[in-house]
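Quick one: structure for this chain?
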Amino acid sequence: MKAKRIEKRKKESSRMIRKIFIICLFIVAVAVVMNLAPNYRKDELEGKLKLIINQSDVTTSLKQDIYVEDDIVYLSSKDIANFFDENIFYDNQYNQLITGSDTKIATLKIDEKAMNINSSKVSISGTAKHTEETFYLPFSEMETVYNIDVVYHPESNIVTVDSLDREQKMATSTKDTNIKYVPTIFSKTVDTVKQGSSMILIEERNGWAKVRTSQGIIGYTKDYGNVRTVREQMESKKQIEGNISMIWDYYSEYASAPARTEKIEGVNVVSPTFATLIRLGKGQIETNIGQAGENYITWAHNNGYKVWAMVSNNSMKETTSEILRDYTLRETLINNIVKLTMDYEIDGINIDFENIYQEDKEFFSRFIIELAPRLREYGKVLSVDVTAPDGSEDWSLCYDRNVIGREADYIIFMGYDQYGATSPQEGTTAGADWVETNIKKFLGQEGVAPEKLILGMPFYTRLWKEQNGEVDSTVISMKNVDSVLPEGIQKTWNEDLKQNYVEYTEGGAVYKMWIEDLDSIKEKINLVKQYELAGAAYWEKDMESDSVWSIIAEELQIP
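Got it. Here's what it folds into:
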């Protein structure tokens, strides 16, 4: 009896072990299947309109639902900002959205079946809409603005967006095949394609191709061939390869352009003062070119220089503010600037707007955001002059250097007047330590890319005079320094400032000068090289010593 009971228990135990083994085996099998074919789980996006941008499914990243109405695809302004234009802007004054790309600026008035692209009106079937939550744009009618191709695939409920400046490859299905969710034969089939069908090839790996079918569905297949490139990657070419070396060639609106005949060594860009704002002119500019200016442009081009014409606001705060705060006036100014470059075959523009209200900081950024694409459409360069960070409200804090550096081709740090005409105490015009500190601020706290930053340096200094407790100064051109100083004066090198310094007494007054010369300019150029900046600019032509150009040419490798 006892032996039978023991035998029975053994059999029951064995059956239990087998059951446990079978259950464990089933769990492992389920786990393997779930791991190999995750798409067998419920699709959380099932029934939802999906968005594919350049072969990536971004549906889960949408801030608002995308939708189709009357065959027009609508995308929210929040998602436009996320994927296409971070600068999209609602202009309350004109009840319109302003958006753009590298070469286009578009405006869409709410509920109006039209949009302006680079100041040209275009009729559209959809309208920009304002809901309680956000703005929506007729995205599929804005292909020209963003340089894209938008397709709605109703069978798969997918919208595909392809950037037309990106490379695209196609492949052909070698047989009737199933497109898999992941690259394994155990994966769920997400689409089927016929032999000879074309598919967009996304990538190849371990014998599998990641593809996008004609329905916009992304998946994997091993049955493909005939890979070919149907669209090449478009590369933007810089107007100038290598270092920029620009000279500002200033003359007032009451003078004529200088009559240049000789080639300037070490220069590849000239910036003459060709245009200024008209006081309260609502975006109109006064050009000072004439025959002398045309001769200047011919001289520059014949010597291989690019001409980046300066457009100045002449420090007119009220005029500048009026224009910056009104889109229509900004557009007028931009159209006039573009026309200037086209009429005279000018290669670029140098915006020199100084003495701006701090409250206009955002609007100055808008001006640059809207100007840059208009110039880029015609291959023109935009450079913008700014002062050192962390200064006074209307002289320094009025610039968003990060936005300017991102949107313009170049941002130029006017690295001078560390101690200027209104300074209550004497000091250097541009000490190397101060210049370097501010370069670090541009690259650090301001987030400007080094390849966008040009260092402006002075071809002048100041002779400071102290007498009876008062301080004043006189601007001295670099070329005239030695003729101004007393004969035999001893110069002392300041290692921190990287400048020669002199001090002497004459007629009961104490004179001091921190000298800009070949040595100090070379030290500033060393900073350009050390921080791998875009290049250098010099204020201003005809203040320099002739021998400075050979140093600049050698140090910046300007042919």
